[in-house]
Write a structure and sequence with these properties.
Elements: H1 5-11, E1 25-37, E2 42-52, E3 58-66, E4 72-74, H2 84-90, E5 94-96, E6 100-105, E7 120-123, E8 129-134, E9 138-143, H3 152-162, E10 171-181, E11 184-195, E12 201-202, H4 203-220, H5 228-256, E13 268-269, H6 272-290, H7 301-309, E14 319-320, E15 332-335, E16 338-341, H8 352-355, H9 362-381, H10 389-417, H11 427-452, H12 458-472
Antiparallel strand pairs: 1-2, 2-3, 3-4, 5-6, 6-10, 7-8, 8-9, 9-11, 10-11, 12-15, 13-14, 15-16
Helix pairs in contact: 4-5, 4-9, 4-10, 5-10, 6-7, 6-11, 9-10, 9-11, 11-12
Amino acid sequence: MSIDRAQIENLLPSRRWFGSKGRAIVGVEILDEAELDQGPPALVEALVRVSYEHGGPDCYQMPLVIETDGSVTDALDSVELLRALGSLMAQGATIKGRAGTFRFNGPGLDPLAPPGGTSVRSIGAEQTNSSVVIDESIIVKLFRRIEPGPNPDLELGRLLTGEGFSSIPAQVGELSYEGAIDGDNVELDLGICQQYLSGGRDGWLETLAQLGQLYGRAEENGHTEVSEDVIAHHAGGILDAIEELGDVTASLHVLLSKEDIEPDLASEPADATDVKEWVQRAHGSLDRVFDSQHESGVDLKAAVEETTERLLAVQEPGRKSRIHGDYHLGQVMLSERGWMVLDFEGEPARSLRERREKDSPLRDVAGMLRSFDYAATAALFQRAEPGTEIWDSLEPWAHAWEESARTRFLGAYLRTSHPGGFLPSALSALAVMLDVFEIDKALYELYYERNHRPAWARIPVRGIRRALERSAGR
């Protein structure tokens, strides 16, 4: 089947998952394709390489709908055709393309009753990938930007499901490709299929809703003096849930810290080389922020450098393992089974190699702590403008809630993670590592906010200042 490449080139800039909208496309190449359903219209799976005027190329997975007149559309715009994915996985289908083979594997699906008989719908909120829910029982996530090698979402999902970890949706299927591209044999992970959590509540949205109620009560009560007891009285439910999230996070890291699993996944001791790399990574984040044309926060640079250098004195940094890598409230969900952890792909801006590297589990902890800061302030933005009387009166409540959330989460995490033996033995070392990882994450956030939401840059700047204050107070 011939696919009109000009139509693909015109289609790409309109897709939310296309990550190079600011780059001029100079060419589109179809690396391989296979017909999944003859139709009409036909459902075609295509691997596409996009070249640009500047910089290296990207490869994308594009399920396409090809009409009889040759017109091409994204299959996510005609989602009914994608119900075929459930059947293909349940049957363990193998479909040959021009240069390789597309494989559909569904060990957790019933070939005698394959998914796809009742309903299919897309989830439109995602940006870097595309997901469809089939029969309200499974969710299939298609990785859009693809690279050779194991995708950590699929790789870790397979491990955690096999180990019986109950705080993720079980992985029940996967999509992959094996073939020759530019003369090299490659393996590409294309998608993951998991049980669908019907009725689950997004952790970020749930926290914002609870904080909105807290701030509403503060206004109703005339902004009485805030204290830890007052916060616990008015926001006890979400704080109890955050404490449970600390337990779940620690249980995840205990499992990932095991040594008796395959080498690519097994934990190993962190050493001085790792510590130096962590410092260099933080310095790289710092340089990227201050190499930009923005001036705000320049006074922080020397203090950040001094604090991050303290990490070099840590002699026993614990173990390094595979981690979530992009851990925040938007990556967890409250369900009838408690907290569920989602999406193990890591930070989208990092390469596949970087996302698969072993790291300190405390980097996940730092990411979640930064998310509490974001939630407290984002809920404040929903009620007032910075500098207004309402903002000023509610800001102490936001700070008090964040501190309570940090205390509850960390207390539960440290208690439950202790048997795993993967954290530094000295509490002083643990505190320094958390400070540096939080600062590194906040620098990453600051770079993003300055370029996308300047009004929100105050959140990571404040987070950096508080981390520096905690460090200086020890």
